[in-house]
Fold each of these.
Amino acid sequence: MKRRKFLILSSIFGLSPYLQGKEFTIFEKEFKKIEPTISAVQVHMFPTSSQIPSAESMNVTQFLLETLSHKSYDKDIRAFVLEGAQELNTRESGHFRLMSHKDKEKALRAYEGTQYGSNWLSRIMTLTIEAMFSDPIYGSNINEAGWKALGSYGGQPRPKTRYIAL
C-alpha cells in the first residue's frame, strides 16, 4: 500500500467514530410511503400553470417532511398528515398520483366533502403555502420566487441558521 493511500485510509478510520449517518425515524419511514401522494396533492393545488411558482419547483414536499419531523412539531398533527394521505390512497385504491387532472380534482372534492378530508386538505395547503413563502434558508421558496411572485420580501433580519438545525 502506498503511503498516501495509507494516510487517507488512516484519517478516515480515525474520524469514523465522529461521522454519523442519518438514521431515519419511524415517521420519516412512514412519510416516504405516502410522499408521492402528498406531493401529487401539492402539485395539484399549486400547478405549474398558476401565477405563483409551482409546488414542484419550490421543494415543498421536502419542507413539509422537515417541518413535521422536527421534535417540537405536534405529534398529533404529524400523525394526522400521515393518516390523511393514507386515507386518500385507500379511497383512490392507491392510484391518486397516477390519475388525470380532472380525476384528481373529483377525488379531492369528494375527500373535501368529508370533515376529515377537509381538515386534512386544509393542513396540507397551510404547510404548502408556508413552504412557498418561507425564507429560502429553510430549503423552499427557491430563489425567493414565492416572494417575487407576490412583489414582497421576507422579514428582516433574515435568519442565519435554520430553526430545524437549532
Note: Residues 22-165 form one domain.
Amino acid sequence: MIVTRDLRNKRFWRGLAAHGLSALGVLSAALGLIDLFSPDTLGKLDLPEILLVPAIALAYSIRKSWPYPVEKHYSTPDTKVRLVTGDLFDQETSLVIGMADTFDIETPHIIATTSVQGQFLAKVYQNDSSSLRQDLRAALAGKQVIGTVTKQGNTDRYPLGTIATIRHQRTQYFCVAYTSLNERNNASSSMGVLWEAMEQLWDEVRVQSNGDAVSAPIIGLGQSGMSTLLPIQDAIRFLILSFVFASRKRRVCEELRIVVRPGDERRIDLLEVQEFLDSLKTS
C-alpha cells in the first residue's frame, strides 16, 4: 500500500479533522453528563486519564479516515464492493475476463501476453490454446454470429456484450466481449457499448453465479482502446456504478471484488474510491 502518498492526501486530513472533531464533541457531551450527575468525578482524574479523551478521538478519526480496506456493504440489496490489490487469478471466486467480439485468444501477436486474456490462457489453461478455444466454442454454441472480419485469427463476430461462460477446474469464468477488433486486430469500443456489455455481464452473473462473489479486473485498460476515454480512476467508478445499479434492480451476487494490479495501485486515489462507494449508499 502507498501509505506515505495517502498521508499527503488532503482527503485524508479533511476526514481526520472532521471525524476527530465529531468524536471530541461526543466525548465532551458524555463528560458533561458525568459532571452534571457526579460533579466530583472529573476533578479526581489524573493527567494520563485526561489525555485519554483526545487519544480516543484521534484513534477513532484515524480508523474512520484510513482508506484500507476499500470496501462498502450495501443493505439494499445485501451486497458488497471491495477493492483489493493482487493477482486476479489468485482470487477464489468466479472471474470476469474481458474479450473482443471475435473472442481471439492467440498470444502474442493478437492478444498481449501481459493482458488479462493472455494471463487467462497462461495461468488457467497453461498456454493450451486448443483447450481454451474448445471451451469458448462450446460456451458460444447457439449464440448468433452477426458478421465476419478479414483478419488474422478468429473472423466471426459476435454482438458486443456477448458472454461466454466457462467452467474450468471448479471455477467459473465470465468472458465478456466489450471491444471490437478491426482488420489489423486493433481494438476499439465506446462508453455506451461498455455500459451495455456490463449490463449483460451482471445479468449473466446473476443467473450463473449462484449468488457467490465475483472478481473483476479494472475494465477498459490495456489494449481495449478505452484508456483515453476512461482513465483508471474513472474506469473503477464506471465498474462500481454499473454493478450497483444492476444490483438495485435485482441482487447480482454477494460481492464484487475489483482486483488492482500492484503496478497500477499508485495511480489510484483510494480515498476518493472509498468516498465514491460511500456516496452510493441508499437511504
Note: The first strand starts at residue 70 and ends at 74.
Amino acid sequence: MGLLQAVILALVQGVTEFLPISSSAHLILVPYAADWPDQGLAFDVALNTATWLAVVLYFRADLARLARGFVRSIALKSLEGNASGRLAWMLLIATIPVAVAGLVAHDAVSNSLRSLTVIGWASILWGLLLYVSDKWSDKWADMWAGRRVDPADPGRVESGEVLEITWRTVIVVGFAQALALIPGTSRSGITITAGLFMGLNRTSAARFSFLLAVVVGALAGASEGVGLAGAATPIELQPLIVAFCVAFGSAYLTIHLFLQLISSVSMTPFVIYRVLLGLFLLSLA
C-alpha cells in the first residue's frame, strides 16, 4: 500500500466516523472509485483503533467520572445519588443490542449487505429519518418529556446535574444502534436520530452517541484484534503508522468541530449530503 492511499483512507475514516454520514459507505466507495485493492485487516484495525483513541482522549474527563461512578455503584450496590454511575450503566446496557446483533448477523452483514444498492438506500432512508427527527425535535421533546431537556451534555457532572436521559431513551437508542450494522446507516447518525426522537437536543444526542462509541469501539476492537492475531498476513509498518496518526488527528478535530457546529446548525446539510451520496451510489449499482 502506498502512502497516498493510506493517508486518503485514514482521512476518510477519521472525518466520517463521527459524522452522521456513514464511514463504512465511504470506506467502500473510495477504494471502489480508485480501484484500490482491499487494504487488509491490519489496516482496518489501525484505523479503528486510532478513531477509538481519539474519542477516548476527547472525553477523557467524562470517562474518568463515569468510571469512578461505575466503581462506586458496584461497591455500594446502589445508584442513588450517583448520576455518573447511572449513566455508565446506561451506556453498557445500550450496547447490548448491537453486541448481540453483531454476533448473530456478522456473516450476513459481511457477505450479503455490503452492496452499493444496500448502502445507497440506507444512506437515503436513514438520512431522511434524521431530517424528520431534527426538524420536529421540539415536538418529540414535548411528547416524551413535556419540556425541552437541558442542553448540558450527558457525561459532564461538574455542577452535580446530569442530562435527564431515561431508561426508555437508553433502550430505544440501544436498539437503534444495532441497525448501524447495515452498511450505509452510520452508527453516529442512527443513534443521534434516535436520541432526537426521544427528546434530546442535538448536542446531548451527539455526546451520548460519542460516549456509546467508546464502549462499542472497545468491543469491536477486541473482536478485530482476535481476528488479526489469527491472521498470517504481512504488515507494512510505515503506511500503517502514518494512517494511524492521520486518522487519530482528523477524528479528534472532527469530534470537536461537529459538537461546536450542531449547537447552532441543523442536521440538514448532513441529510442533503446523505441523499446525494445515496443517489450517486444507486447510479453505480
Note: The radius of gyration is 19 Å.
Amino acid sequence: MLLEGQVAVITGSSRGIGRATAMRMAQEGARVVINGVQEGGVWDVVQLIRDQGGTAIGVVESVASMVGGERIISEGLREFGKIDILVNNAGVVHDKMAHKMSETEWDLVLNSHLKGAFACIRSVLSGMRERREGSIVNMVSVAGLTGMIGQLNYSAAKAGMIGMTRTLSLELESYGINVNAVAPAALTDMTRPYIERAKQTSEMNGESFPEYWKVGSPEDVAELTLSLCLPRSRRVTGQIFSVNGGKIGVWSPPEHRIATVQLNREHGWEAAELFEQVLTAYVKT
C-alpha cells in the first residue's frame, strides 16, 4: 500500500473532495482523521472507512479558530502519535459583490479557509520538523489566481493560501517537508449551484457551455492529492496544480516584468511622464 504506516488529517472531509481524499488515502493504508462541522457526516465517513477495513477517527470541529485547528491536530496526535500528511480542504463560501459584502461574510470565509489552514499547519509543524518529513496540501482555487467576480472574500482567502504554500515550501524544504496546492474543478455540493447557474446563463444567452465548467469528480482531485503526499514525492514542493477530470496542469510562478522601454532619470519621474513613457509599456507587452 502506498501510504502504509502514514497518518493523514484531512479537514472538511465529511463530503466532497475532502471525503474522496480521505477514502482514497485510507484505501492506501493511511490512518485518517476525518473532520467536519456536521457530526452525522463525519461519523458516516469514519464508519465507511472502518467497514472497508481501514482505520479512522472523527473530530467534529470548525477550523475557523486557532483553538479549533489545534484541537483537530491534537486529537490526531493523541490517537495515532504522529501526523505525516495534512490536507487543508475545509472552507465555506458566501458570495456577494464587494459593495454588498458584510464584515461577517468576509470574516467567515477568510477564517474558514486562510486562518483555518494556518491553525492546522502551525499545530502540525512541530512533529513534522522534528521527524524531518511530511506533506502538506492546500486546496485553493483559480479564483485566487485570476480573480472571480462576486467572490472577493473567497479570492482573497485562496490567494492567501497560495502565498502561504509558496512561503512554507521555502521554509520547510530543508526539513524534508513538501508543501503544494491544488486548484480543483470538480462537481461537489459546494460547486454544484454555481455550475448549474453557469449552465442556465449559457442557455439563456444561446451560448455554448464554457469548457472550464465541464468539470471532473472529487475522485480525480483525490488521486492528484494522494500522489503529492507519497513519500517519493517529497522533492515536489511549492507548486500550484490544477485538476479538472483527467486534465492536470501546473501554474507558473508570477514573474517580475521588465519594461520593454528602459528609462533612467537621476532625479526621478513625474506621474504624467511615467504613464506616457513607462507604464504603457506594460500594457502593450
Note: The first helix runs from residue 16 to 27.
